[in-house]
Amino acid sequence: MYPELTNTIQQLQHQSISEERKITLQSLIDFVQQKMDEGKDINLVFICTHNSRRSHLSQIWAQAGAAYFNIPNVRCYSGGTEETALFPKVAETLVNQGFNIFKIADENNPVYAIKYNDDSLPVIGFSKRYDSAFNPTSGFAAIMTCSQADGGCPFIAGAEKRIPITFEDPKISDNTPQQSQVYAERSLQIASVMFYVFSKIKK
After folding, report:
1. Which of 21, 116, 147, 167 could pair covalently with 64 via S-S, beta carbons 3.0-4.6 A apart?
2. Distance separating alpha carbons of residues 41 and 72, to the nearest angstrom
3. How confident is the model at residue 107 (pLDDT cuts 50, 70, 90)?
4. What local confidence, expressed as pLDDT, does residue 44 receive?
5. Using one digit for the tens of pLDDT, what is the confidence trace for 3-60?
6. Which long-range contacts (CB under 8 A, 24 or more apart) does 96-105 make?
7. Rounded distance between C-alpha atoms, residue 199 and residue 203, angstroms
8. Distance between CA 132 and CA 79 in Å, rounded?
């Protein structure tokens, strides 16, 4: 892990997770544990409406969490009920928290490579529908990161398990003086949840 990212991870111990949320997270823990025990790939698809904020933060922090706790064969993806673009403030927030991010395609829907250390494959971040050809088609856990997507997707083809782990949209702070603070706080909240999940996996 990059040193600045390691410093951010050390802050996660100050983030509290409610007992109610831990009960919900147990479903994801069980999915990851079962796949690992069976020696299978662990495919996680994080879904929100626009695939622009929460689903990307969840995808990236989950991949980093799996690496941090040395959980093998974890592949994290994201998608939305519609395609838009990764919101620039998300990338800026993650850079400030220690990730190395660079664009590999600059267009209306930019494609980013997101790295947590120099030696691992980057997470590829761009907005897409959850059923994009980029994402797995079967055997994955669909993790719903917003209530709108959870309600708007009554059925997700190929999902082996569907888990609602929702977060408040940092978009509420856009165009306000609190924007940077709100995005940073939401990123840390999501990171703490993902790191909690992978900290519970028994190898």
Report:
1. 116
2. 8
3. confident
4. 98
5. 999 999 998 988 889 999 999 999 999 999 999 999 999 999 999 989 999 999 999 9
6. 96/184, 97/4, 97/5, 97/8, 97/184, 97/187, 97/188, 97/191, 98/1, 98/2, 98/3, 98/4, 98/5, 98/6, 98/7, 98/8, 99/2, 99/5, 99/60, 99/64, 100/2, 101/125
7. 10
8. 8
Query: Would you tell me how many other CB atoms lie within 10 Å of the CB of residue 191?
Result: 24
Query: What tokens does 192 get?
Result: 């703490």
Quote the CA–CA distance of 191 and 180 in Å, as a whole number. 16
> What is the chain's mean pLDDT, rounded?
93
Nearest to 24 by CA among 187, 129, 167: 167
Name residue 114's beta-bridge partners.
101, 123
